[in-house]
């Protein structure tokens, strides 16, 4: 079998297509969660902890050239090594929210699967010879 045919069979299988759809939807869903975290949750968390913007929390690891403002963007543009732990906090919160949402979705799907009753087995037709033997038995009992 040629490589092209093998690849075609592999790519057309249902699992590969399902995986591709999952990755695309996951990417779009990740953008939604990013927006929820950065635009809705982190401002509230920052308000609770003293109006902090976590994305701008950092530690300078090198020397700052004169005239460079002490902001994360300016320091990165100047090539100063910085430990941007605030960005890590934001990404970690983002991951936790995304993991929780996926957990709840899987939990709901599993619950719905359990509630669906199993279809009753179709009645099997009794073979004709058994029916005939039962009729003979019943007529002998009379």
How would you characterize this protein structure?
The chain has 142 residues and is an all-alpha fold. It is 68% helix and 3% strand. It has helices at residues 3-12, 14-48, 72-77, 85-115, 128-141, and strands at residues 59-60, 82-83. It has a two-stranded antiparallel ribbon. Helix 2 (14-48) crosses helix 4. It is elongated. The N and C termini lie far apart (70 Å). The model has no long low-confidence stretch (mean pLDDT 82).
Short description:
By secondary structure, the protein is mainly alpha-helical.
Provide the descriptors you would attach to this structure in a database record:
single chain; 3% strand; mainly alpha; two-stranded antiparallel sheet
Task: Please describe the topology of this protein.
Layout: H1 3-12, H2 14-48, E1 59-60, H3 72-77, E2 82-83, H4 85-115, H5 128-141
Antiparallel strand pairs: 1-2
Structural class: mainly alpha
Query: How many distinct beta strands?
Result: 2
First and last CA, distance: 70 Å
- Which radius of gyration do the C-alpha atoms yield? 32 Å
- What sort of overall outline do the alpha carbons produce when their principal axes are compared? elongated
Count of alpha/pi helices: 5
Q: Which residue ranges are poorly predicted, with pLDDT under 50 across at least 5 consecutive positions?
A: none
Q: Reading side by side through the largest sheet, how are the strands ordered?
A: 1-2
Largest sheet: 2 strands, antiparallel
Strand-and-helix sequence, N→C? Answer: HHEHEHH
How much helicity do the residues have? Answer: 55-70%
Oligomeric category = single chain
């Amino acid at each position: 079998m040629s490589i092209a045919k093998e690849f075609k069979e592999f790519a057309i299988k249902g699992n590969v297509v399902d995986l591709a759809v999952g990755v695309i939807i996951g990417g779009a869903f990740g953008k939604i969660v990013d927006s929820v975290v950065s635009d809705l949750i982190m401002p509230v968390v920052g308000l609770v902890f003293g109006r902090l913007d976590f994305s701008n929390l950092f530690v300078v690891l090198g020397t700052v050239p004169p005239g460079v403002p002490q902001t994360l963007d300016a320091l990165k543009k100047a090539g100063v090594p910085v430990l941007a732990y605030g960005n890590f906090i934001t990404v970690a919160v983002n991951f936790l929210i995304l993991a929780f949402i996926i957990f709840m979705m899987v939990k709901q799907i599993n619950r719905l699967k359990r509630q669906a009753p199993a279809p009753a087995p179709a009645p099997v037709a009794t073979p004709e010879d058994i029916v005939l033997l039962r009729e003979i038995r019943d007529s002998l009992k009379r």
